[in-house]
Amino acid sequence: PDSGVPAAIGFAEESKLPFDFGLIRNHYIGRTFIEPKQSIRHFGVKIKLNPVRKLLEGKRVIVIDDSIVRGTTSKKIVKMLREGGGAKEVHIRISSPPAVGPCFYGIDTPTRQELIASSHSVEEIRKFITADTLTYLSLEGLKNIVPESHNFCTACFDDNYPISFPGERLAQMELFLK
């Protein structure tokens, strides 16, 4: 996943672990999490990413990604790394806090019911995606690394929306009508 590369490079530097591309991405396939049907998302992940067995076989692997939306892509990646790549262990690190609420401000995110972190603990998500470990960046950690963190919205992470909405459905519809 390309969106996790900057965080992965920083993680590798800070932890003194080697960085490499254990998954090769087909850049002609778009973002899979925004596809409306699960079957399309599943197929998209399958043709979008290919494990590099020579780098992964028998290794303990750390995957850095920017977020987990539904959990289905992460689950496929973990399976792909184990079965296709031969990884011994797969540890997932997410460079954002868990997304618990939808974004009404232009990011195409699913409804609250579709966001896995809105109704499941980190441990439940870890079990669902079958990773050996799962860790997210905390909201406090995010605020600490971003200068002037009071100038950006964290609503999808903490449910504190800058303006109130009468309901998620109505808010989403209003965005399309403008």
Describe this structure in words.
The protein is α/β, with parallel strands linked by helices and 178 residues long. The strands form 2 sheets. The chain has a 3-stranded parallel beta sheet. A two-stranded antiparallel ribbon has the order 1-2. 38% of the residues lie in helices and 12% in strands. The protein is globular, with a radius of gyration of 17 Å. It has one domain: Rossmann fold. It is built from 8 helices and 5 strands. The model has no long low-confidence stretch (mean pLDDT 85). Strand 3 (60-65), helix 4 and strand 4 form a beta-alpha-beta unit.
Secondary structure layout:
Elements: H1 5-15, E1 23-25, H2 38-48, E2 49-51, H3 53-56, E3 60-65, H4 72-84, E4 89-94, H5 122-129, E5 133-136, H6 139-145, H7 155-158, H8 168-177
Helix pairs in contact: 2-4
CATH topological fold name: Rossmann fold
* Helix-residue proportion: 25-40%
CATH C-level name: Alpha Beta
Percentage beta strand? 5-15%
CATH architecture: 3-Layer(aba) Sandwich
Q: Summarize the helix and strand pattern as letters.
A: HEHEHEHEHEHHH
Biggest sheet, strands in spatial order? 3-4-5
- Rg, alpha carbons: 17 Å
Low-pLDDT residue intervals, each spanning 5 or more residues = none
Q: Mean of residue pLDDT?
A: 85
Number of strands: 5
Distance between the termini: 33 Å
Count of separate structural domains: 1
The count of helical stretches stands at 8
Overall body shape: globular
> What's the story with the biggest beta sheet?
3 strands, parallel
SS content category: alpha/beta
